[in-house]
Amino acid sequence: MIEAGIIGGAGYTAGELIRILLHHPEVNLNFVFSTSQPGKSLSSIHQDLIGESDIQFTNKINIQVDVVFLCLGHGNSKKFLSENQFSENTKIVDLSTDFRMKAEDHEFVYGLPELNKKEIKSADYIANPGCFATAITLAILPLAEMNLLNDEVHVNAVTGATGAGTSLSTTTHFTWRDNNFSAYKSFGHQHLHEIGQSLKQLQKNHSSEINFIPNRGNFSRGIHATAYTKFSGELEEAKKLYNEFYKDAVFTFLTEEELHLKQVVNTNKCILRLEKFGDKLLITSVIDNLLKGASGQAVQNMNLMFGLDEKSGLNLKASYF
């Protein structure tokens, strides 16, 4: 059994990670570290876990675990690792932004399996992608592989309230969020950097703008993204290109049907739909921001790192009702 630990156990992504790992056939959840909840049961915070586990949050870490997941606020993972050292055999999956951009001062591999599966399999340290970055990159990555991203890409995407985390702010209160809709960080969202990095990995000369408008939706979870750019080929050519690119991707699928969030919420899937309008290709992409956009993808990466079936522990089912 793989012994796993979680650092920062009280948030939404940690809650999803706990749920997956408790039922993963190859994993034993060794500890869940939290400085704010030590001594409390997991179900005192993640209340659906009543009867699922008798594990308590702890303020002590086991440095000998096989894998540790960092579910800390952005900027805190680097600080935590500088103050706490795990064994040389411990693999790390970080769910923050801290290591997503390539740099000489770290050995983290960017954990988008559809792009870096081979590298992930041999990695000791994984930087899990951001939720918007996952949905948008998967929408346009096949075009980059064929050097077809030579014009601006326009993206409009909506995320649920869980994308903001558990910390309260004006825009996360129910009275503000309910029956409401708003844009934020237009053209300047932090995930743009990692999207650009991934595109240049396949299309070295990529320099076209990614015009991204993120939006807050009045629902709990999920991301619905639409991206369009100029494409001179026919729709069937695009579909063939995408099907070929994702032929070995176990969680990314193309569909002919209109997309909606209930197809992917509570799953680790990304579903894409292609449409052609004049000289423009429209790609719609939907994911669950807490699963394929965070904890589900983290476990997918862990499976690859340990040579397990990529889908192990991730046979999650969407619910329409």
TrEMBL record:
Domain of life, source organism: Bacteria
Reactions performed catalytically: N-acetyl-L-glutamate 5-semialdehyde + phosphate + NADP(+) = N-acetyl-L-glutamyl 5-phosphate + NADPH + H(+)
Pathway where this protein functions: Amino-acid biosynthesis; L-arginine biosynthesis; N(2)-acetyl-L-ornithine from L-glutamate: step 3/4
Gene3D superfamilies: Dihydrodipicolinate Reductase, domain 2 (3.30.360.10), NAD(P)-binding Rossmann-like Domain (3.40.50.720)
InterPro entries, alphabetized: AGPR, AGPR_AS, AGPR_dimerisation_dom, AGPR_type-1, NAD(P)-bd_dom_sf, Semialdehyde_DH_NAD-bd
Location within or outside the cell: Cytoplasm
Its EC number(s): 1.2.1.38
Record's signal peptide: none
GO molecular function: N-acetyl-gamma-glutamyl-phosphate reductase activity; NAD binding; NADP+ binding
Primary localization class, coarse: cytoplasm
Active site residues according to the UniProt entry: 131
Keyword Metal-binding among record annotations: no
GO cellular component, one term: cytoplasm
Domain Semialdehyde dehydrogenase NAD-binding: 3-123
Listed name of the protein: N-acetyl-gamma-glutamyl-phosphate reductase
Taxonomic source organism: Christiangramia echinicola
